[in-house]
Each structure stands twice: as C-alpha cells, then as structure tokens.
Amino acid sequence: MKVRVLGCSGGIGGGRQTTSFLLDDAFLIDAGSGVTRLTLEEMRRIRHVFITHSHLDHILALPLLMDSVGTGAPPLIVHAIPEVIAALRQHLFNWALWPDFEKVPTAEQPFLHFAELAIGETVDLDGGEITAIPAHHGRPAVGYLLRGESASLLFSGDTASHDGLWQTANGCADLRYLLVECSFCNARRAVAGAAYHYCPETLLPDLARLKPGVEVWISHLKPGGEAAIMTELTAKHLPCGPLRALEQDQNFVV
Ligand SMILES: [Zn+2]
Ligand SMILES: [Zn+2]
C-alpha cells in the first residue's frame, strides 16, 4: 500500500497541516487539516477513515469532508474505538457544531456511518490490513499498525510513553517504518507530561529499546519547536539509526 502524508504537524501556520495520512486512494488515518490539500475528486474516493482519537487536530476536516463530497451512497465509514465515537456524537455531530450526519440527508442513507473498533482488532483493506494498537494520551486513543504486502508501518498516534507501543514494534517481524510523535522540546517537558505527549527526554530511552532495522520518523512537532526538538533528538546516537522529521507529502510503500 502507498502511504501519503497529507499533514503531520502538531499545529498550523506557514503551510503546516495537522495529522492525516492517505492510504492508497480510499482510506485515511485521521482527518486533520491535511485533508484540505486533497482535490474534490481525491476526497470523493475516500471510503473509510480510521480515527486515532477525538482531539480536534485529528478530526477537524471530517465534517467538512462529508459536507463537500458526501453523498450517502455509500456513507463514509468512520472507524474508531467506542469512546471516540461517543465523543464525536456528543460534541461534534450534535447539530450545535455540525449536523448529525448519521441522519442526514436521511437515516436510511446517511453521509456517515460509525464502525466500532476494539484495540487489537484488525480490519482488512484492499492490499493490506490495519490494526488498532494502544496509546497513552490521557483520554481514549489508539495508534495504528498498517501491514502491507511488502512491509509494515507503525503510527504511534498522540501518546506519552507506554510499553504497548514498543512491544508492538519489536513484535512486528517485518516492521520497516515507525512514525512516532514527539510534540515538545525538553524545556516544555512539564507541558508534554500534562498533555500526554512525548518530548526528547522521554522518547529517547524508549527508542533505545527499539530493534534495529526500522526507519524512525518523528511527527506532531509543535509549530516553531521543530528545530529544537530535532536537535535534542539527534544529539545522541541510537541503535535504530538517524531520526528524521516526518514531512508533508512524504510517501511510504508497505
Ligand atoms: Zn491529542
Ligand atoms: Zn494531536
């Protein structure tokens, strides 16, 4: 499968876009502002969205995507854990912020269908499969393991340190790419801790446990902090090799 990075920043400004990855043509992981870079035709081809968690930077394009190209025939299928679906129903598709697209234009043929996903559950994609893995973000959240025909890619989602991520990475025999968040520089470690994100001082000890042979790319850097975070992350030699900042429009094949 081809993975195209539509957005991978922890914020906006100067062309930065928030998290969204396009898998082949029909699947998204997260629907942050990166989705706004797609053409209408590209948006029309999207059939399934896999959401990591309900924070705005990961879902903000979801209502506008459906408003722009939704037809209800068939509905857009949004996969998420039950707590995330409940949050989206209660706080977003509630008529106050946006229409309830599970009933628009009709309840029989709506724009939106939610599909509950359990942590550890795998969903078949055309040419691959995706599994929800645990995350540690202070509220219900997941990351995703994407298995293609040639290799696997692991995306941490928003998370602070937790064993599940590294157990999944080290247990995946054909893991080629790890996309892991590191939102803040060390000077903002207290903020990172309070918001359940990584900073270099917490990520580097975990990365030292990663088996060799995996390319590591850093995502979700907060705007303006990118250079400081990457300087701190690359100051130390790691067995996994050089760490690089994930960039918009980067492509992976798995
Ligand atoms: Zn978050
Ligand atoms: Zn985020």
Give your account of this protein's structure.
With 254 residues, the chain is α/β, with parallel strands linked by helices. It has one domain (2-253): Metallo-beta-lactamase, Chain A. It contains eight helices and 14 strands. It is globular, with a radius of gyration of 18 Å. Bound molecules: zinc ion (2 copies). The site of one zinc ion has 4 residues, from loops.
CATH class: Alpha Beta
Cα distance spanning the termini: 5 Å
Strand order of the largest sheet: 6-5-4-3-2-1-14
> Can you tell me the number of structural domains?
1
| Total E-strand runs | 14
Question: What is the H/E order?
Answer: EEEHEHHEHEEEEEHEHHEHEE
Broad shape: globular
Topology of helices and strands:
Blueprint: E1 2-7, E2 20-23, E3 27-29, H1 40-44, E4 48-50, H2 56-59, H3 62-69, E5 76-80, H4 82-91, E6 112-116, E7 122-125, E8 128-134, E9 142-147, E10 152-155, H5 163-171, E11 175-181, H6 189-194, H7 200-207, E12 215-219, H8 226-233, E13 243-245, E14 251-253
Helix pairs in contact: 7-8
This protein binds zinc ion (2 copies).
Residues 55, 57-58, 158, 220 line the site of one zinc ion (ZN).
Q: Descriptors for this entry?
A:
7-stranded mixed beta sheet, alpha/beta, globular, 254 residues, Metallo-beta-lactamase, Chain A, 23% helix, binds zinc ion
Put the structure in a nutshell.
The protein is of the alpha/beta class and 254 residues long. The protein has 8 helices and 14 strands. Helix content is 23%, strand content 26%.
